Fold each of these.
Amino acid sequence: MTKLERQVTICNKLGLHARAATKLAILASEFDAEITIVQGEKKASAASVLGLLMLETGMGKTITLLGKGQDADAALDAICALVDAKFDEAS
């Protein structure tokens, strides 16, 4: 099974805070794929809100998305779009 990788920069003011992490985890869970988020030396499942919060990812940080599974490409596209849309937050 091919592993896919993408990088995206967190651009919303509050970074990957609780509400944003929840949106990301819900989105990741919709796909038949295992998605891992990496920031520096830390890794977390994209489906784990607590794991995502433990990454302590702030505005301007670049994260790496690793995906494997049947829907990995679509999942990475959707997650990148969510991050680029600043998690649909006003600011």
Amino acid sequence: MKKFKIFAFSILGAALVTIGLYSCSNEETLNSNQDDSEQIANLQSRSDGDALIAHIDGANLVPQIDLYEFESELISSLIFEEIESIEIVSDLNPETNEYESYLNIIGKNPVNYSLTAFQTELIKDGNYLYFPDPETPELPITTFATHECDGNGCSSCSFVYEIKSNGKKGKITGCDCNDTGSCDHKVTDKDQADKNKDTAKTVLEILKAIF
């Protein structure tokens, strides 16, 4: 009988220890998740207005937003009639030894259906990329730019990019015709800074809403 009681208490003790360990494990998991959430929240609110858009994980660039939802909201806001591609690029420029990071939204203009790109110079903070608040006073006037390709006897245009010595794409520099004819390139940055700023405000609102 004594042996049975000792055995029973041993089982009960083991059960209590197991429950205690399980509870601690759950608490650690909850704390870890809470820490992760707080870290993301802190990253998201790095400044009063910048929006976290992606982070760099080794050789990979990982979006922090749902690109399909982003695309849908861009069309709903009438910035684009349709979206062809959304590119987030961040590479070291071997000439300057500095990182250059861009968000390229390419699609069709809702007014004239021309090929249009809204290009933004992203802010790189450590391994995180942010869409800048257009109200930030110290932002260069060229932070936001709108590019258009107008086909001249050409039914299919595409954008041409500056290619770095490491083979990576840089800024949009022109347009190319994919068949016969030509494509005229038009860029608006300094001359229509206010219009680009308004577009950037809308994009920023979308990014914050879907984060």
Amino acid sequence: MAVYEILKMGDPVLREKAKPVTRFNSNLGRLIDDMFDTMAAARGVGLAAPQIGIGKRVCVVEVGKRRFELVNPEIIEAEGEQCDAEGCLSIPDYTGRVKRFQRVRVKAQDRKGETFIAEGTDLLAVAFQHEIDHLDGILFVDRVENDNPEE
């Protein structure tokens, strides 16, 4: 497996909307495996394909023992609210408070093209939302809450 270099904020690829995956083949499977390896090497909980320079709607998430490969994901249901510190592998050494949904349901496909529904709460919900944002060219810093409105 390969470990990719993770792009940093400022790289224009991170601001582009990723294209849907239409081919479900061994190349996609290798990409997903490499993304899990890259995420683990960087000690992250999620990674989106644009973060490694690939403009496809693919992301991986691992929270605790729950591991997800999400191809063409979309949030289909969301409720509640949480506001916690968030960070990003593409923006090292920076965290900020971000308001997110507390629970989300995500419709996605796996590496074989099979559709499934994943549900997450708390950190898992944050990870799903954060990675799907990457697929839309949105970075978490775009959503950081201003803790001091006087500034």
